[in-house]
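Tutorial handout. Part one gives the primary structure; part two gives the three-dimensional structure as tokens.
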Amino acid sequence: MSFEVVPIGRVHSSLKLRAGAPRQPWEGAPEARLEIRPEFLECLDGLQAGDEIWILTWLHESRRETMKVRPRGDPRNPITGVFATRSPDRPNPIGLHRATIISIEAAGSITVEALEAIDGTPVIDIKPVLEGLATPVQPSSRQPDNPSPATPGLESSRSDSSPTQW
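Part two.
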């Protein structure tokens, strides 16, 4: 199985090199501008200055063959699988960035606070932050042999119970 991901835009930032970029927004990330492609401008309807958003990016300079790293590149940290880290180097280098919208221009430019993505990074999606849904789900007391839907009233749309084939 394969997927095609089409960028909806790109990042314009004063951060030009991966080596000098902060790893997290609170580590000195600058404001940045998201240039949205014309065919996706109507998708911005409903967003406004002050909104918190998730920006999903394709970390185009990442090393996709990397499976384990020392978190934050610190030799004192144990070697760890990339799925347990925030390393940009990973099989599918999708970046997840939380930011606040400063402004939205009619031509499809969104200015955001503190974005740690480098200039030219492809933007693959934008989603609103939903605070009430960001809280971790508490483990349930359901019995494994008596499963029920994760959301009351919603049933699975699958007509069979066979596992997904990879």
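Part three, for discussion. The longest strand covers residues 94-104. Strands lie at 9-12, 32-36, 52-58, 68-69, 80-81, 94-104, 109-112, 122-128.
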